[in-house]
Design a protein that fits this description.
About 0% of the residues lie in helices and about 60% in strands. The strands form 2 sheets. Strands 2, 4, 5, 6, 9, 10 and 11 form a 7-stranded mixed sheet that branches. It has a 4-stranded antiparallel sheet with strand order 1-3-8-7, with no helix packed on it.
Length: about 120
């Protein structure tokens, strides 16, 4: 059993910053990638950023490049998303995602509102 717990969401003004965190627990042996997705009502869930837990390579969606930074703590099995210069269009429910031994896992989500 794997559990992903997100934290750090909230309400922020445009131009502000937030830092999301996701902690993985349970059977995390073989963890490969952790990532952040986001979703707004009526739209598909979209990938925001990802990090390979081993080598540290990262991926960013074009819409967040230069504003968001994903990082990881291999020992704690945690991933973070530093979000700067937030815009109203960043408002969404943000989900943590992990690939562990080729199985996919999702967190419950944390709301980010930019207004």
């Amino acid at each position: 059993h794997v559990q992903l717990v997100e934290s750090g969401g909230g309400l922020v003004q445009p131009g502000g910053s937030l830092r999301l965190a996701c902690a993985a627990s349970g059977y995390t042996s073989g963890i490969q990638t952790m990532a952040w997705f986001r979703q707004t009502p009526g739209k598909e869930r979209e990938g925001v950023a990802a990090v390979h837990m081993g080598g540290g390579s990262t991926y960013y969606a074009d819409s967040v490049k230069g504003r968001f930074t994903i990082s990881r703590d291999k020992a704690k099995i945690e991933v973070y998303l530093q979000m700067n210069s937030l815009k109203s269009e960043d408002t969404a429910l943000y989900y943590c995602y992990a690939v562990i031994s080729w199985n996919y896992h999702w967190g419950q989500g944390t709301q980010v509102t930019v207004s």
